[in-house]
Design goal:
By secondary structure, this protein is α+β, with helices and mostly antiparallel strands. About 20% of the residues lie in helices and about 40% in strands. The chain has a single domain, classed as at5g01610, DUF538 DOMAIN (Roll). The protein has three helices and nine strands. The N and C termini lie far apart (about 50 Å). Keywords: Signal.
Length: about 170
């Protein structure tokens, strides 16, 4: 489906966005661009909720066009799709057509009550395959079309906290 031509136009678009994103004054309209960007990359626009405080992308590969993203939420963001979702104030990962990978700062709450890290999302036809630290789930993309709004809540421990907890105590704050 993704032909050489569509790769080329996507690449040009991503380059344009990379050139544009350093201008922080446009932050009012960045969340709109983020949802459009998701759609251009084959994802439903509501996969990431509003309000996004800011986001930036950097090009890390050309074939296929691949960018790393950093999304900032003002506070820890909770939103319910099928199950409860959590986005850390700093949410990062890599995105290319039909695939988001290496996510840090996104968890879902399972019926056990436990929050499990989500690492990858892959478009599989009309479905999205979500890969977690311990399992996989598949949901129809229709659940993620509507752009939902965050409810703010407590910060959850993340990967880096786990690593930091194994080091001698060095407080940064
Ligand atoms: C955001 O976009 C809307 C509609 O395109 C425009 O009217 C508004 O001025 C923009 N706001 C900023 C801060 O750029
Ligand atoms: C891009 O993001 C991926 C996944 O998060 C990470 O493994 C990689 O080191 C990043 N690359 C650069 C150049 O930042
Ligand atoms: C999740 O899906 C990936 C990709 O299809 C597969 O490699 C992996 O083994 C699956 N993991 C589980 C726990 O089912």
């Amino acid at each position: 489906m993704a032909t050489a031509n569509s790769h080329m136009s996507l690449l040009l678009l991503l380059l344009a966005l990379v050139a544009l994103t350093p201008s922080t004054s446009a932050s009012q309209n960045l969340s709109l661009n983020l949802h459009q960007l998701l759609q251009l990359l084959g994802f439903p626009p509501g996969l990431i909720p509003d309000p996004v405080e800011s986001f930036s992308i950097s090009l890390v590969g050309l074939l296929p066009p691949t960018v790393n993203f950093t999304i900032h939420f003002e506070e820890p963001c909770y939103v319910q799709y099928v199950i409860p979702n959590y986005f850390a104030p700093v949410f990062t990962g890599q995105i290319t057509f039909g695939k988001i990978s290496g996510m840090i700062g996104h968890k879902d709450q399972f019926s056990s009550g436990e929050w499990i890290d989500m690492y990858d999302v892959t478009v599989v036809g009309e479905d999205l395959l979500f890969e977690y630290a311990t399992t996989n789930l598949t949901y129809n993309r229709a659940y993620f079309e509507e752009v939902k709004t965050c409810t703010y809540g407590p910060l959850l421990a993340d990967h880096s906290n786990q690593l930091i907890s194994q080091l001698p105590m060095i407080s940064a704050e």
